Amino acid sequence: MQVILYWRDFQLESGGFECQFDWDNVKVYDGPDESSPLIGTYCGTDVPQFIRSNGVNMLVVFKSDFSLTFRGFEAAYYNIPGKNNLRVTFFAMFCDNSL
Q: Does domain 2-94 have CATH number 2.60.120.290?
């Protein structure tokens, strides 16, 4: 079974070419935690319509530095039929860069 993640809306602070600046971004991992293979890092408004995992787990991590405010994102997911142990984890991390 695989997880399919799709974006209904996506507008974050732009982080430069391939999100090279570590401002606001969403990272998607092909597995249950951040040691899993990174599928991609997304920022601004340029995201793929669909992201597919290779297994039953997917981790989505949102990071913000609080410096600028954009609309954010809305995502949904579904599974390609198979086993019923699908797991998608959403995690938010906020960083204060003023220190």
A: yes
